[in-house]
Amino acid sequence: MKKSTTAAGVLALAAGLTLTACGGPKPAAGAGNGQQDVTKRAAVKVAEGSTAKGGDVHVLMSSDFQTLDPGNSNYVQTANVGQLYYRTLTMAKETSGTPPTIVPDLATDLGKASADGLTWTYTLRQGLKYEDGTPITAQDVKYGVERTYARDVYTQAPQELDSALTDDGYQGPYKGGDFKAIDTPDDHTVVFHLKQPFAEFPALVSRSNTAPVPRAKDTKLDYTNHPVSSGPYKIASYDRGRGLKLVRNPNWDPATDPNRPALPDTFTFTLSTAQATISQQLLSDADPTALTLDTQGALQPSDIAKLSASDISKRTAAGLLGCTDVLNFNTTTITDPDVRKAFALALDRNAILLQYGGERFGNIPQSYINDAQKGYVEQHTALDPKGQSKLGEAKKLLQGKNYPKSLVYGYAEASAKYKGVGTVLQQNLKALGVDVQLRPIPTANYYTVLAGDQMPDIARSGWCGGADSASVRFTVDPNVGPSLDGKTYGFSNIPRYYDAKLSGELYRLRGQNGSADELGRKWATAMDQIMQQYPLVPLVRNYTYSVVGSKVRNAQVGYFFGSIDLSAVGIGQ
To answer: Which residues form the Solute-binding protein family domain (predicted)?
Structure first.
């Protein structure tokens, strides 16, 4: 579902137009290069079962959050901390090692669909209050969704829910107009109107779009500094780039919230600690209450061997993630699909996996989607299934081609491994006569840069799916799908891929109805065709480890969050 710095019912194709899997070498089953398949590894939890209340959790991070505003967030780190201070109609409840389960949150149930599937109705629980004691209303939920339509203000607002609703022409609450896609007949009822039936709609309303926002407290872009709490904690202080303090929300009623145990008294975030320092502090247990949300637990390559030490292994949570990392080719600057294919074939993905810590931390995949998703069909690319470079084939493809001889690779500067990916890319493309320049991008602004005018020629990204990842659509549509009107590439489509025929097919698929398996096969088949144009290269399917302090309890690596699930942790004595 979400981007990691480390992401809706669907239609038969237009008459006479069908999608078929293209030819090409078939990917090997299981792990790409012969290593142990990470999808078979069990999750490891630390000190689970604790119900002790009290204490402070110290969260060490190498950079600030991209945003704390639920209406402007498409990021797993914000979703992780966000579940502490905001609630949504439904919630993706984490269980380490497996996709989350959708459960009711603000709503009393998972929603009631009309007989034709075109409306979904939600009833709010009784007794819901904001941090200031005022009631949470259905109108506040509607307003939270309305804000996400103001895309000139909120450039990173999630759009999957919006694309399923009826009001494509609405431009948010600041430009006026009547938002007809949601009705609120009373203070406790929210009714959504859909373009087409959408069987997986309960997963959509677990997204941050449905976090309630009181209209009177909306400060637009400044709302990130103090979003009004509807959850068990509220923001006591926030010094951008330095620190964040969450304290208990006295008006949160645990009787209304079966999903959050809210064990610690406080969460203290340090937002500017170097990853190498974070790793050393956690390994040495310098702060027994500490943990990190940084990818791969901020572990450095030189630290990996230390995980086997008995005093560290018992403090190490681990699990398979619903996250896959890819290398995106900017299709507006690298325009020829054959050139992109050549660059992809030249990559030594084994060397890239080593930048992640080697096979202990993941497998080399053949696709952004995987065979655990509903409707998966076999994906085909010319990439070597063992991750080896096909330099000879790459050179042949480039014969007679006019292609760029200088490219820029952008990477999130806080992580040494992402720079390492660029170093491998430099070496591989140099053999094709291409000079690759490495451009560090501040981690807190990374995806904002990729969405804007400064998007480099090549950039790494990751997509972490939650419970919605069970459907192929929820990976394909955000990452290579078109805009809401179908006329250009979508806002989270980092490679800026747009093909009149194939993107048009994805746009039509958004309006189709059918079972998740049936529709998933259509989305997966479309993805198979799109990948023949190489807008991106799959790099690593992630399995991660995260060391925590010796007093941290109930630590589990979230499948969706890609890091320690903050909603479950506590502090022991």
So the answer is: 101-470
